[in-house]
Specification:
The protein is an alpha/beta fold. The protein has seven helices and ten strands.
């Protein structure tokens, strides 16, 4: 399961959506642990529940039944302010659509979470510049998102996700809008961050390239875990 202790746990998690009196079970009694240092993919067909589970792990939604734990603490009884603080300080997010702020430059997007954390201007600028170099975007910090390619935007999103030193980065279909070569370079970057910085990554994906790179593949179908396979070290 894990290279270290468990960071995230789903315990008996069920998620039911109701539309016009019709219930849809997105997740059905999921039990899953994600450990420190993992590079793990949640895979499965459309509608399998992988994005729903990622959103629950990210405290962006709450389960109908069961509990989500982060660092051993249940999220069930935390209020909105506490959950917001948890997301700010312990979780990093990389979204399929990048979700960069269009009026901010690349370096300002990377700094944004640190602004919310109250990091001083000098420290956050220095860290953002370091991260731009790390994601191979040195010299492009002044560009706004629409002036950058999709791959460049997604690398800014990765830099933003790790700027706050999160416990884990949750990435929802991060390669979906990228061509195969750009996707491979992005995964190279994430693997390097995982290996060199110990950043834990959890992906939801249907991309075979991501599944091939992941060291653990958790497959969902109809809201249930149907396979959980870890690769052995070569």
């Amino acid at each position: 399961m894990t290279d270290g202790g468990a960071i995230l746990e789903a315990r008996g998690v069920t998620k039911v959506y109701e539309t016009r009196g019709v219930e849809t079970h997105a997740l059905n009694g999921v039990d899953l642990e994600i450990g420190e240092g993992e590079f793990t993919a949640l895979s499965g067909p459309s509608g399998s529940g992988k994005t729903t589970l990622l959103n629950l792990f990210g405290a962006l939604d709450e389960p109908t039944r069961g509990e989500i734990h982060l660092d051993g603490e249940s999220l069930a009884h935390l209020g909105a302010a506490a959950l917001s603080d948890l997301r700010l300080r312990k979780l990093g997010f990389v979204f399929q659509a990048y979700n960069l702020i269009p009026v901010l430059s690349a370096i300002e997007n990377i700094e944004f979470v640190m602004v919310l954390q109250g990091v001083s201007a000098g420290k956050r600028r220095a860290r953002a510049e370091d991260l731009l170099r790390e994601v191979d975007l040195e010299g492009l910090g002044g560009k706004r998102p629409l002036e950058m390619s999709g791959g460049q935007q997604q690398r800014v999103a990765v830099a933003r996700a790790i700027a706050s030193h999160p416990r884990i980065v949750l990435a929802d279909e991060p390669t979906a809008n990228l061509d195969s070569e750009t996707a491979a370079r992005l995964l190279d970057l994430m693997e390097r961050l995982n290996a060199d910085r110990g950043v834990t990554f959890l992906f939801s994906t249907h991309d075979p390239l991501v599944m091939d790179r992941a060291r653990r593949n958790v497959r969902l179908k109809d809201g249930r875990v149907v396979a959980d396979e870890a690769k052995t070290a070569a």
